[in-house]
Amino acid sequence: MSSPTTTRPRPIAGRVARLAMAATLAVAGAVAVPAGAAQAANPYERGPAPTVALLEASRGPFATASQSVSSLSVTGFGGGVIYYPTDTSQGTFGAIAISPGYTAAWSSISWLGPRIASHGFVVIGIETNTRLDQPDSRGRQLLAALDYLVQRSAVRTRIDGNRLAVAGHSMGGGGSLEAAVSRPSLQAAVPLAPWNLDKTWSDVGVPTLIIGGESDSVAPVATHSELFYSSIPASAEKAYLELNGASHFFPQTVNTPTARQMVAWLKRFVDDDTRYEQFLCPGPSGLAIEEYRNTCPSA
Fold first, then answer.
1. 225-249 b/e with 16+ CB inside 10 Å = b?
2. Is 273 a catalytic residue?
3. Which entry of 160, 216, 272, 273 is annotated as an active-site residue?
4. Is residue 45 part of a domain?
5. CATH code for the domain of 165
6. For the chain, how many structural domains are there in total?
7. For residues 243 and 287, what is the distance between their CA atoms, to the nearest angstrom?
8. Which is the catalytic residue, given 3, 99, 153, 170?
9. Does 232 fall in a domain?
C-alpha cells in the first residue's frame, strides 16, 4: 500500500477530584472503601488493572469473536469485519472504526481488530468503497461504519453509542482526522502514518493520538504527522508517538508500541479509564521510540 503524492478531555480535573476526595476521607478517618468501588465510580471501566505486560501481550483479557459484513448489506462504506468481546456480563462496550490506506484492503492491518477488541472494544475494520478513495471520503466512510455498528449491526446491543472512536492508516489516518472534525462527539481518534493534503487541524476537538514512522517516505513526519499534531489545539488532548526507524508501512505488521499506545489511548478517552494515564503521561520510551510528545501537565 502506498499513498499518492461532546469531547471528554479531563485527565487533570479527574485526578484533582480523586485526590481531593482521598484527602477528605483521610481526614474523616472512618470511611472504608469497598473493593471494586473505583470501578463502580466509573461504569465504563472494563477488565483488570492494566500492566505493561497486559498491554504488550498479543491479546488482552477478553475472548473475542468476529463476523464479516458484506458490502451488499451496508451503505456508505464497503463492508468489512467486526471484532467484539464475547463476554456479555460487562455491560456495553465502546466501539472504533478503522480504515486501511490508499490501494489497501482491511487485511493489510487486520491484526489490529482482535488485538483492540480483546481489551474490551467493538472494532469494525472497513473495506473502502474503492481502493483509491481520498481522506475526506474515508472519513465519511468511517462515520458510516460507526452508524452501522450502532444502529443496524448484529452486535449493536453490545455497544454504547456515546463512546465511539476512529482510526486509520495513511489516507485512512487522514480520514480519521476528517471524521474527528465532522463529528466532534467522538471520544478519540488515532491516525497511523496519516496522509492528508490539509496540514492544519485547529478545528479538531477530539482527543487525538498520532503515530508516525521516523523513516516514512510516503507521508514524511515533517510534512504530515508532526504538522498535524502541532496544529491540533492542546485543549483537545493530544499525543504524538514517532517510531524509531519505522517506514510508512509499520501498521501492516504486528507492532507492539502501536498497539500498546492505541489501547491505552482508547481506554483513557473512550472508557474514561484513568488507570491508563500512567501509560500516556509521561509515555513510552526505549529503543523502539524516536520521540513522544503529549499535553500532560508538567511536573
1. bbbbbebbeeebbbbbbbbeebebb
2. no
3. 216
4. no
5. 3.40.50.1820
6. 1
7. 9
8. 170
9. yes
